[in-house]
Structure formats: structure tokens, C-alpha cells
Amino acid sequence: MTVTRLDADRARDFAEGLAELLTAVVADGASVGFLAPLGHAEALAWWEERVTAVAAGQLAVWVARGEDGRVTGTVSLAFPGKPNSRHRGEIVKLMVHRDGRGRGLGRRLLSTAEDAAAAAGMTLLHLDTETDSPAEHLYRSAGWTRAGVIPDYAASPAGVLRPTSLYYKRMPAPTR
Fold first, then answer.
1. Which residues lie below 8 Å from residue 132, measured CB to CB, with a gap of 6+?
2. What is the residue-level pLDDT of the chain in tens, covering all 176 positions?
């Protein structure tokens, strides 16, 4: 399993595989911002929009690939644009294909994004995830702290309103 950070050109190259991953995790019920059924064209258009953010330095995207080269996971780190928030970042769209689950890939992707955030001088990360989802166990076991729950925050892929849990993690202060 290889994990690679994508620049804008590589993000374009991987858009098809990332779209396939996105449609698969939504079909499996992951609440990542889309309703089911999610069409390939919509998923591809969404990933192609991310290329602009990657090129502008607003988003870092990592992709995990199996031995066969197929995309099995991804995670992104969003960099804030406001001067008063450059010390923090947001973990977004951590996704692992059902075939890659249970092998530590989610933790590896999360650690990769955390390490990059620390290297960039970020001292605080945050994210949101569906309350009582499998992802919550990952975040808690990786040292994240739940800040609270917002009821009826987002619709699940099936269209049912679900609560979201907000998490944060303090990163080590950069050494000088």
C-alpha cells in the first residue's frame, strides 16, 4: 500500500480513481457530504473542483493505492486562508474503500495528514464526523478530543438527518 501526496497534475491524474472511491463509500453509507445514489460524473466533477484548491495551496490531498494501483483511500488537509487562523487546519474527506478497511489504512492516512500539518507549523486540527459512525472510534483512538455534538447537522446518504461530532487535536508546537 502506497500513500502519495498529490500535486495539481497528479490530482488530475487520480480524479477517476478518487471518484470511484467516493461513489463506493457513499454507496456503503459513509456520510461525507453526498446523498445516494451518487453518480460517477458528479463525483468526478467534485474531485476535479478540488484540483483548483490543490493548485492554490489551499488543500493537500493524499491518495492510498493498493498493489494493483487502484485507489483504496484518501484524506485531505484544508489550509485556512484567514491570517488569524493559519495555526490550524481541517481534516476533510478521510475515506477508505470497504476492501481496504481493517488494515490500519485509515489510521495511516490520518497520521500522514497530521504529520504534514505539524510540519507546516499547525498547532491545532479539527474535523467533523457523523456521530456514532465507525470513524469516531478511529479519531478517539488516535488522540482526538470530542468538543461537542450538533443534532440534525447533515443528511446521511439515505437522506436521514444525523448528528455530527466535532473533534480537535492539539499538535506539538513547532521547534525553532
1. none
2. 899 999 999 999 999 999 999 999 999 999 999 999 999 999 999 999 999 999 999 999 999 999 999 999 999 999 998 999 999 999 999 999 999 899 999 999 999 999 999 999 999 999 999 999 999 999 999 999 999 999 999 999 999 999 999 999 999 876 66
Task: Tell me if 17 sits within 8 A of 63, measured CB to CB.
Answer: yes
Indicate the residue type of 95: M
Going 109 to 129 to 97 to 18, the CA torsion angle's sign is negative
Within the chain, strands assigned E span 2-6, 59-65, 71-78, 88-96, 124-130, 145-155, 161-170
Here the cell at position 162 is 444525523
CA atoms within 13 A on the CB side of 102: 2
Task: List the grid coordinates of 140.
Answer: 478517539
pTM value surpassing 0.90: yes
Domains in the chain and their CATH numbers? Answer: 2-123 (3.40.630.30)
| Sign of the dihedral through C-alpha 93, 97, 98, 103 | negative
